[in-house]
Specification:
With about 90 residues, the chain is α+β, with helices and mostly antiparallel strands. Helices cover about 25% and strands about 50% of the residues. It is built from two helices and four strands.
Length: about 90
């Protein structure tokens, strides 16, 4: 089984969410996170973009998306890129 690097955008459920606390909650829930960055969206709302390494089996990112959607204050999770690791 190979590995893929996935980038996911996590939208908080409001602009008032502390992104540092949200990031810590996400790191506790999801293993394999390699990097976290912020992305300004609009009207004071900022999303988190995470890079995570997962297995390339079918549905690999689905499990990560499900785990992330269960974190408090996460409004939406979207996979925006998946690349095979060499």
């Amino acid at each position: 089984m190979g590995k893929v690097a996935a980038v996911l955008r996590i939208m908080p459920d409001s602009a008032d969410v502390n992104l540092k606390d949200l990031e810590q909650s996400i790191r506790k829930r999801v293993k394999g996170i390699q990097d976290v960055a912020t992305e300004p969206i609009a009207f004071g709302l900022t999303a988190l973009k995470i890079a995570v390494v997962v297995g390339d089996d079918e549905g690999g990112t689905d499990m990560v998306e499900k785990a992330l959607s269960e974190v408090p204050h996460v409004g939406q999770v979207e996979t925006i890129a998946v690349n095979r690791m060499i």
